[in-house]
Amino acid sequence: MNNYDIIIIGGGASGIMCAIKAKENNPDKSVAILEKQNRIGRKLLSTGNGRCNLYNINANNTEFYHGSFKKHLKTMFKNCSVTKIAEEFGKLGLITHSDNEGRVYPYSNHAGSVLDILRYRLAELDVNIICESAAVSVTNTDDKFTVITDKDKFSCTKLVVSTGSPASPKLGSDASGVNLLNKLGHKTLEFSPALCPLDVVDNSPVSSLKGIRQKGFASLYDGDRFIKTEIGEIQFTETSLSGICLFNLSSYVKKLTNPIISLNLNPYNENYGQLIYVLKLNAERFKNRELRTFLDGMFVNKLGINIMKSAGIKNFTRKTSTLTKPEIESICDTVYDWKFKVKKPFDFGKAQVCSGGVFGDEIDPKTMQSKLINNLYICGEAVDINGDCGGFNLNFAFASGIIAGESL
Ligand SMILES: Cc1cc2nc3c(=O)[nH]c(=O)nc-3n(C[C@H](O)[C@H](O)[C@H](O)COP(=O)(O)OP(=O)(O)OC[C@H]3O[C@@H](n4cnc5c(N)ncnc54)[C@H](O)[C@@H]3O)c2cc1C
């Protein structure tokens, strides 16, 4: 049996930060991280396309979050605001920069820099890192936890579970830690993918557009019921609509019975009248050109052709002059309101985060301690909370890790 004062199961963003704060606050106590992979922080290295968008300066606004812990965020952020996260990284020696959306990145634009400065601090503090050690069982008596891994047996007086979620399982994470908490009596909500591309039911209009990006509005509906609009860059992939704006909408889709995405790619935004005026003008000005070029002044040719196909146009070698008034109106309608039926369920492999995890009301937001079991702490994505794209998820992971670490 290996005995420690504090054991942290899961060496990801929240677990690492928690270990640092725990050991800084309790230098005489023994702290160990149990990590099932052969290294800590593997997911962190893949974040922000390898640049690591580590927090967002607007993250104190709880509107960017979803899940049963959301109502406790205000209390939690009082103890660990964005300013505090910035200060902690400052103390660790990380220089950062932010963009005009408030997204904060390391100055090196390299996720490895973030992991490195965290690893150096763990080493200075003498935190034990035990890799290739997957926790398979946790039991507790009044004053002690016993953790059995696939290789060994551990005991501790305080236990932190920071095992993340099954989003992008190829990076090693799964639901095992949350299942252990469920066995200890915690209510857990089933994980489902969030922040992921939206696969469309009939992918024929998008499959040939792979790689094309176009700015526009993406609106989510449940049948006819409007849910939310996001503006941003829409990316077409072989089977799906992707990009930050679609990622953010994906968090809402789970609850919908008939999810539909409507793209508004109108260069004049909401001004339908201007769009129809310009298209009618172009139909007249460029009447001798082949119809396949009709939208070339607005969109990449392939995108223009696919919009026209979706508008019911078939023959593209005919002259633009042959366009009828209803055909022009139908093209306009499609540019303004291009509908795609969304396929459910989503693929965990494509997701950046998950909704689900430990029910928010069972965790004290001032400490991240379980309200059911003394000396048990839960942080990061194991908690039922997920944020929008833009650094909000790592923000929560680091904030919850700091709070748990300081409370231990
Ligand atoms: C591709 C990608 C890009 C992303 N980009 C961003 C971004 O730029 N900004 C942002 O804010 N968020 C981003 N995210 C989300 C962010 O990475 C997560 O929200 C964050 O890492 C969650 O931290 P965590 O500590 O809860 O979990 P993780 O970082 O996943 O760490 C959990 C750790 O626990 C270990 N573990 C799991 N089960 C066990 C067990 N039973 N025993 C022992 N160890 C176990 C895992 O191996 C893992 O190392 C991205 C996610 C992905 C997949």
Extract low-pLDDT stretches: none
Helix proportion: 25-40%
What's the shape? elongated
Average residue-wise pLDDT: 96
Could you name the CATH homologous superfamily of the largest domain? FAD/NAD(P)-binding domain
List all distinct small molecules, including ions and cofactors, that are bound in this structure.
flavin-adenine dinucleotide
Number of DSSP strand runs: 22
For the termini, the CA-CA separation is 22 Å
Major sheet details: 7 strands, mixed
Number of helices: 12
Report the C-alpha radius of gyration, rounded: 25 Å
Range of strand content:
25-35%
Number of domains: 2
In CATH terms, what is the architecture of the largest domain? 3-Layer(bba) Sandwich
CATH classification class of the largest domain? Alpha Beta
CATH fold-type name of the largest domain: FAD/NAD(P)-binding domain
Could you explain how this protein is built, in words?
- A hairpin with a 2-residue loop joins strand 13 and strand 14.
- The model has no long low-confidence stretch (mean pLDDT 96).
- The chain has 408 residues and is α+β, with helices and mostly antiparallel strands.
- It has helices spanning 13-25, 42-46, 73-79, 82-92, 111-125, 176-183, 204-207, 244-253, 272-285, 301-310, 325-336, 392-407, and strands at residues 2-9, 31-34, 55-56, 65-66, 96-98, 103-106, 128-130, 135-141, 144-149, 153-161, 188-194, 198-199, 213-222, 225-236, 240-242, 259-264, 338-341, 353-358, 363-364, 369-370, 376-378, 386-387.
- It folds into two domains: 2-193 and 355-407, FAD/NAD(P)-binding domain (3-Layer(bba) Sandwich); 197-345, no CATH class.
- Strands 1, 2, 7, 8, 9, 10 and 21 form a seven-stranded mixed β-sheet that branches. The protein has a six-stranded antiparallel β-sheet with strand order 12-15-14-13-16-17.
- Flavin-adenine dinucleotide is lined by residues 9-15, 34-37, 42-44, 46-48, 52-53, 134-135, 162-164, 167-168, 171-174, 176-177, 352-353, 380-381, 391-394, 397.
